[in-house]
Amino acid sequence: MLSHRTFLSVVRSLGVLALSASIVGAATITLDFEAVPVSGPGVFADPTAYLASFGITASNATPGALFGVTVSDAAVPSTKHVLNEYNGSSPETFTLNFLEPVSSLSFVREQYGSNNSGPAWSASALDASGDVIGTVSEGVQFASLSATYLFPLSGISGLRFDANNTGQTWSGPPIGSLTFTSAVPEPSTILLISLIGALYLAARLIRLRPPIAKTRSIGSRSCS
After folding, report:
1. H helices of the chain, where?
2. SS3 (DSSP) at 199
3. φ, ψ for residue 41, nearest 5 deg
């Protein structure tokens, strides 16, 4: 029979193995921004809550620029919700930050409508230190079809967009969707970790339980 100390050691070892293998699954996540209410063309709705629901924050938007989710007659279809920044005929930038690093990150630059154009822009994947680990870019476009851009990388902690409008209809690329792979624990691993945690807690409680006092019976003796 295992001693209490050996049992605790076994439970700890199982816990280490389970935690080491906890991030073995992967989930593909897509944001399409349709869930963000937009009251009309040219109106920029705050995307903070929607982004946060996927573990994403936005930062470093150009001061004075409009940033958010919008719809526009300059896109195809005109009812498509897109993430965009508008700073007129001036350079602009913003960054999306991921709470946990992601991999295989891609996004769709939506189609520019007839007689509409888009600026030159670049998108840079950033690691946890903020260093650029990959870049895609596009020159000035006119009535162009939608295009998908992919970063076949891992360890992506941020995505920075930079654009330079020189008189185009859009001052920044209209982003229709964002897709990435995020590591998640498999359900069986979560169950195993929970079970090990329960066993360890039970063992600790048994160890901390005060011992039961032993009583000793002494027989009566008579003196004559």
Report:
1. 4-20, 48-52, 187-208
2. helix
3. -55, 140
CA geometry: angle at 156 spanning 190 and 133, to 5°? Answer: 150
Please state which architecture CATH assigns to domain 25-184: Sandwich (2.60)
Beta carbons of 79 and 106 less than 8 angstroms apart: no
Q: Are strands 111-112 and 82-86 parallel, antiparallel or unpaired?
A: unpaired
Averaged pLDDT of the chain:
83
∠ CA 124-125-129, rounded to 5°: 115
Q: What percent of the chain has pLDDT over 70?
A: 71
Structure tokens at 142: 């006119």
Nearest to 166 by CA among 114, 67, 88: 88
State the Cα–Cα distance between residues 184 and 196, nearest whole angstrom: 19
The CATH 2.60.120 domain(s) of the chain lie at: 25-184
- Coil, helix or strand at residue 206: helix
Q: What's 62's DSSP letter?
A: P
Please tell me the pTM assigned to this model. Answer: 0.72
